[in-house]
Amino acid sequence: MKHILVVNGLEAPMLRQFGCDCGRCASLERQANTSVSLLGVNGRDEAAYHILVDVGAGVVDSLIANPYLHAHRARLDALLLTHWHPDHTVDLNRLCVSHHLTRGRRGLPTPRIPLWCRAGTAAWLQREHGYEWNAFLQLEAPAENEPPGTLLPSLTLPVPGLRVTPITVSHFGADRAPDDSDGVQYSCAAFVVETRTSKTVLLWDIDSENEWLVAPEGEGQETAVSLLSHADYLFIDTAFWRAKEHRATHPSFDNVQRIAANLRPRHTLLMHLSGHPDGEGNPGYGWTNEQWTAAAQHVWTAKGLPGTVRVPTIGEEFLLGECDDSPHTDF
Ligand SMILES: [Zn+2]
Ligand SMILES: [Zn+2]
Ligand SMILES: [Zn+2]
Q1: Domain 2-322 has CATH 3.40.50.1360
Q2: What is the pTM of this model?
C-alpha cells in the first residue's frame, strides 16, 4: 500500500468573487477551499483508507474527480477539521448526505463518520451544522482548551505506518465560543502526518501571532516545534503578500518566510491563497497561482530560504511512503 496526499483545494474564503475582474477571478481554473485527502492506495489503485482534512466549498467535487475515490471507489474513514470557519466546513452537508446515500444504494453499512476536531470547533458545529452533527458525525476527540503550541495526543487511526498528531495553533477569528461568552476558546489545530519515511505538516488558518513557531518558549512549545521541523512537505497558510504591521487572522508571506526559516522543511507549499486581501493596486492583488509561485520563488532564492517553494495544484498527488500492510480493519 502507498500512503499519498492529494490536494483538494487551496483557496481562501469566497473563491473567485462574483463581479470581480482581477486576474485570479478572471481565470477559469477550477477552485476549491483549502483541503487535502490522506489516502492509502493498494496495488489495484483503489483507496484502502481515506482521511479527509477540511471540507470547504468545492471539496466534494475534488473528491469526486479523484481517481482513487471515483464513483464506486468512494470511501471516507475519518474527517479531520482544522476549525469551524465556513471555508473549512461549508461542504459538510453535501459530503455527509451524499456519502450516506451512495453507500446505502450499494448495500453497504452507513456508520457515522469519525470526526476529529477541537472542542471549540465541536461547539460551533453543533450550532451551525446541527443536522450533520446529529445524524452523520461521531466526535472522537477529548475536550480541551490548550493554548497555542501544545502537542495533543496522536489520533487513533487503524492504519499501519501512519501517525497523525494535532498541534494547537491560534487563529483569533475562530478562537471564541459560539455563545459569544467572554474568554478565549481555542478552536484550531495544525496536523503533523508521519509515515515511516516522511513527515508532512498541515499548517493553515493560523493568525499572525503564532510567534512560538519562530521562538518557542518552554518545553511544551519546543516539543511542538521540534515535531513541526524538518518536514518533507510544509503546507502553509499564505493569505497576504505584504507584511502586516498589526495582528491579522492569517499570516503574510513575510510570516511564512520566518516560519519556514525556523522549521526548515524540504518543500514549502503555499495554501489558503487569494487575490484579494492585499487590496487593489498592491502586489498580491489578483495574482494567479503561477504569479504567487514566481514571486515566492524569487524571494526564496534571494534570501537563501530552505528547500523549495511553490503553489500546488488541485488534484496533485504527493507520495508519503509505502508499506506492506493494509489497514487492520475495514473501518
Ligand atoms: Zn478577484
Ligand atoms: Zn480558512
Ligand atoms: Zn479560518
Answers
A1: no
A2: 0.97
